[in-house]
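I'd like us to work through together how a protein chain folds, taking it slowly. We need material for that, and I hope you will provide a protein of your own picking. Go ahead whenever you are ready, and we will take it from there:
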Amino acid sequence: MFGNIENMISQVTGGQVDPQQLEQAASEHVSEMDSGELANHLQNAADTANQNGNPQVAQDLMNMVQQHRVDPDSLKNAAVQYLRDNPGVLSHFAPPFAQGILSKVL
């Protein structure tokens, strides 16, 4: 399963998916969850990014949670924009989260 997700992420980061499609898929996926659940996904992804030697990504994700936690729509919008602009960050998310987005574009 994880290898399949890695392949899907490489397709997205390799330019095989239009960023607008990725944005739409991410928007649909995060709209289905409450902000607490999304914040947990972002925090877990930040932990994984930090463990994988990507402290800037970890910091970006934690800042996002801290800055937008009080406004659920703002948190969702920030997450969607970050995923659109940085599709490789999906590799730091739990497989079900990443697959929920990638399955909509691939």
